[in-house]
Amino acid sequence: MSRTRRLVIGLAVAGLLLLVIVNVRSIETGQHTRIRETLSELRQMDAELNAAVIKLRHGLLHNYDTLVHTLNVLKQHARELGGHSAVLPARGADDIRQDLATLSQTLASKEEMIEEFKFSNSVLKNSFQYFPRTIDALVHNPQVPPALRQRLHFLLNGILLLPVEGTAERYEQVAELVNALRNEQLSEPLQTRLDHLIKHAQNILVHQGRIDSLTRAIVPADAPLLGQRLEQTYNKWHESQVRESNFQRFLLVLVAIILIYYAIYSFVQLRGNARELAESHRFLQTLTDALGEGVYTFDASGRCTFVNREAERMLGWKREDLIGREIPEFSRLCIPGRDASPGPGSSETVRSDSCMLTRKDGTVFTASLVTVPFIEHGTARGWVTTFQDVTEKRLAEQALKESEERFRTLSTLSSDWYWEQDENFRFTAMSGGIQSSTGADPREYIGKTRWEIPYVGMSDADWRQHKATLEAHLPFRDLILQRLDGEGRIHYLTVNGQPVFDEQGNYKGYRGAGKDITEQQHAQEALRMANRNMEHLLKEQEKRAHHLATLSELSHVLQSCLSSEEAYSSIAKFCQRLFPQEAVALYVLAPSRNFLQSVAAWGNITRSESLFAPETCWALRRGQVHQMQNPHSDLVCTHISSSGATPQPYLCIPLIAQSETLGLVYLEFPGGTQEESTRITENKRQLAVTMAEQIALALANINLRDTLRQQSIRDSLTGLFNRRYLEESMQRELARAHRKGGMFAVVMFDVDHFKRFNDTFGHEAGDIVLRGLGRIIRAHVRESDIACRYGGEEFVILMPDASLDTAVERGEKLRQAAQELELLQDGQALGSISISLGVAVFPQHADSTDKLIQAADAALYRAKRAGRNRVEISG
Amino acid sequence: MNAPSVFNSGYSVRQFWDGRASTLEDQIEGPVHNQKELGSDWAQIIGKLAADPQLVTEFKAVYPEGIRPENIKDAIAAFERTLVTPNSRFDRYLKGNRDALSADEIKGYQLFRGYGCVSCHQGVNVGGNLFAKLGVMRDYFKERGGNVPANLGRYNVTGREEHKHVFKVPSLRNVAVTGPYFHDGSVETLEEAVLLMGRHQLDVAISQQDVVLIVKFLHALTGQHRGKPL
Q1: With CB atoms counted within 10 Å of each terminal CB, which end of chain B scores lower, N or C?
Q2: pLDDT of A286-310, one tens digit each?
Q3: Rounded to two decimals, what is the model's pTM?
Q4: Whether ipTM exceeds 0.95
């Protein structure tokens, strides 16, 4: 461990040193370059400045821009260098700093001198311009005395020589000359000129001198340029810095190499040690894995250092989870020092049979545990714990105890009983339950076989079979035994048993349980009875539902029936379905209401007449259902023929709808036997009544419908069809004739001079005529003909399949019959009438109903024109 | 006090009449603290500038250290250096365009040189690059009277006796549009200024005719800023 730490520290130091090496620089390269450049420019600029000063001094340059510009650049460079000096190392760069300070001082004084230089130069320039001019003007003025003129010449020479040969004597000489001039007294304006000249001469004297000394000061002949010394100092310093840092770098690399070498060496050694350690660890792991017990170790700080596979399994933790974990985290209840696990410092071996360990999922189990300290130099450095899960053992012991307890409680409290037999089937144990349920003393059983007990209801064969089962050492179930108790009641017992074998598989006897099932037996009987009743009821229910469905269907069918005949046959079919074993007859009351006639019958009607008067039936007489079950006690209707022996049981049900009797349903039952199906039951009676009600309703409906239909298609006066019906029938007939290629005739006729008849005898008489004619027409038409009152006294007869000849012939017969008609009004003869007829035939005369009627009408019109009372054919 | 124009100040040696500021950057300090001008201090100015978020962002893009006195000064100086007014008619004349100046103006230029004005008013800015004593030939202040400290000029900065009444020679670019004249603005017209200059610096009485011609020339020094005449 400490070796690893050493290795890590070594590597870290080496890395740190390398980092330092990379960063070791006396001054950053870029900065160094900039400083060098600045210094070089400083020098260059100073040279330029000096050159500009010289040029100005000698009148080769006429402005100061260069001076100003170079000075500004120099100042800027000096400032930059000042900025750089801040980053120089504090130590060893003092020379540079000093030189830098000198530089900026020099520069400042140079600037000051240059300022003065510029001013002097400007003044000088002007004075040199004005001086010769002025002196010239004076010299050439004749008023100027010759002596003065002479002196002025001297002065001019002296002044002009000053810039070229400015010796001290020369200055002195010129100054004397100027002073001499001050004493001259001239007349104006010469005196002003002279003063002016003196001023300029004075200027030249002062400023030429200043210029010369300033030039010498600004551009000293032997002095180095600005920054030159600084540059040298800096270069020297920089070289020494580089040398020094190279040496440092060399040293650092050396140290780093040594460290890296050491690191590699340590690493290799560590690898070797680690391999050995891993080997021994694997061996230890294998060894402990082979143990059936859980093993874990922990160090002085109470942290787990090792676990074997069994411990992993028992604790539910993964090895990598457990290593480094504190022991109390999974053996919570084994608190060091207080419980099985010793605390740090304890060097005793500890054993515990009931230490509680915690699994990963939080569940706890009981373990027996041994903890042995690992002693080094007299103190415990760690502990080894082995443990076994004893939970199951504990649980098993506890379960056994509980089970015995339960069994004891069960056998004393239960009404069932437990028994045991030895290998010879003799009872060795019998629990008290038998006494509480059957009253038998359990002691009575001990030492006896089952067949020595006074059971009843077991035949010898039964016992033989039971004994065979026992001999075969087979288990048996539900052996039913009966035994009488002290009060003579039978107890039903059921017994189960199974053979007992010891661990070697040797037969040791039998044991089992018994139970009193007397009450169960009774209950089962009752249940069977109830079931049978239930079944019967269900069947009845089913039959009734079926009947209801059939009735409903009958009602539907009857409503769809168009005529009474159709209804009768339908009723017959449904009655057969509802009463398959009985005979039924349907009687209808004749329109005369004085007899009943059978219109439908099924089954074998043995007794009832097919035609009888209503008063012969008790049901019709009383207007309610009449039931004849027993001829000795019940009334027998007289429409039941008395010939033959005892009449069969029957039902007469009157058909009554809207308080009008329509007829009767007669139901004859086979009778004669005890069988229920042959007798009149309430169900059947109910069914028959319901059916009769349905039939009565349906028949009444059909009658009503018939009447309504008659009323809507008939003319009430003549009883003939009306015009609408004719038109419908004609359409139908036309379609039929078209389809089949058939023919039909239309005969149209009216009463001759009907208006005159009406006027003479009144409307009443008119009606009599029409009614009488209707009667004749009805008598003469065939069933397939459709005769109608077309309107007023006009009639039409549609004759299907009739040819022209047939139609004319039949029209003629009608005409004759009309002529012979005798009509009476209040017993008084009205006289004879005549009719005129027109005949048209399809397809001969027209191919549509309208045209056919028109054609017949036209023929009728011709008949009228031709003198009436005749038949005319459409032309 | 006559505030020198900021136009073309980038070519100048030192700033202010008395040259108390070595550079444009230094010059800015003056008005900031002068009670008669901004009468402020840097903390106050930075506070005002920092209140404008857009300005702060843009400032940061140019000066990563943000708004600081030296950065403000640098920015203003950089702006001032762009305030050049080239392309005056005189510039065009010097570049070879002989028609840029009228005959009078050319005469004026010749007089300007002949009288010796050009000894001081030279260079790119026609002056502005040196200091000179006002009253080289004749005591200006004695004749004029008035004895305020501002008249002492550069002496106020250096304290040296020889610097009394020494002022910066002003640039004559745009002189026609930057009146009134002299360090204290005491001279209203260019004509008067030219006359005074001749009398005190050169000890000549420039004739009225010549003054007019010189002034005409001086008008030709008015340049352009961003292509527009001033």
Answers
A1: N
A2: 888 887 788 888 887 778 888 888 8
A3: 0.45
A4: no
